[in-house]
């Protein structure tokens, strides 16, 4: 059973990764013709529906200590209805998913569905036909396709996989979006910092530890993401300036970090990284920047 679970997780992870890469490679713009828009996103939409459905069924199998085959002996689970599958999850799992979705929606604030239960109900469509309707949308020109969100389904699918892994292997607890973003942007900073340190040493300068300065910066702004958002907001207006409480060397490292992020943004597609940076730089109408509320753990758009 354990080996079978590991094999299933590997398949689901690979499918999720491939679908995410495919989705983020689509240029961020709206097509004027609805048919072209549907065709562009159709591979990602159908894959996300199916991957999320299979992962929810996998979660239910783990919850009941069943094999997938035994789970599907119950005809109630032989369905594409994501809403009905979600309702069968135990409360502790639903609570984790609810918490994740609230933070997701606070970042993707253009998605105006406020709860995960409502999200599943909307994308599942009438009588759970959302997946089937979209699967045949290339040849069946229906006027009222169920509302869907690839970015939403992919994000929830990935978090469901993290829950699966934690339930089976008892390691690496599922992480909310803010922690994933923090880890990613911190790793980019470390990379820039290391390159700067090597160049300084090659020029005969001693190594300087800026960890205390950085910790003070983070604390002053309310964490790494809020510090980064402030720097990106400044860069978006007039580039970064050396400030009197920051050493010149650290200012140059931070400039390198920001430039690295902005350069990478060009290839991220509609990911959480892209959206956070885009909002922080004030690139969305009526939004000046973004911050993470440390009490609620929700993202907040800063209006102009």
Strand and helix layout:
Blueprint: H1 2-24, H2 34-64, H3 68-71, H4 82-87, H5 91-107, H6 116-124, H7 130-135, H8 150-169, H9 177-202, H10 211-221, H11 224-238, H12 248-265, H13 272-280, E1 287-292, E2 299-303
Antiparallel strand pairs: 1-2
Structure in words:
With about 300 residues, the protein is mainly alpha-helical. Helix content is about 65%, strand content about 5%. The protein has 13 helices and 2 strands; from the N terminus they run αααααααααααααββ. It has a two-stranded antiparallel ribbon with strand order 1-2. Helix 1 (about 1-25) runs antiparallel to helix 8 and helix 9 (about 175-200) packs across helix 12. The N and C termini lie far apart (about 55 Å).
Give a summary of the structure in a few sentences.
This protein has 304 residues and is mainly α. It has helices spanning 2-24, 34-64, 68-71, 82-87, 91-107, 116-124, 130-135, 150-169, 177-202, 211-221, 224-238, 248-265, 272-280, and strands at 287-292, 299-303.
Give short descriptive properties of this protein.
304 residues, 64% helix, two-stranded antiparallel sheet, mainly alpha
- Form type: globular
Strand order of the largest sheet: 1-2
Reading the helices and strands in chain order gives HHHHHHHHHHHHHEE
Largest sheet: 2 strands, antiparallel
Terminus-to-terminus distance: 55 Å
Helix content: 55-70%
Number of strands: 2
Mean pLDDT: 90
Q: How much strand content do the residues show? A: under 5%
Low-confidence stretches: none
Annotation field: number of helices: 13
Q: What radius of gyration results from the CA coordinates?
A: 22 Å
| Class by SSE composition | mainly alpha
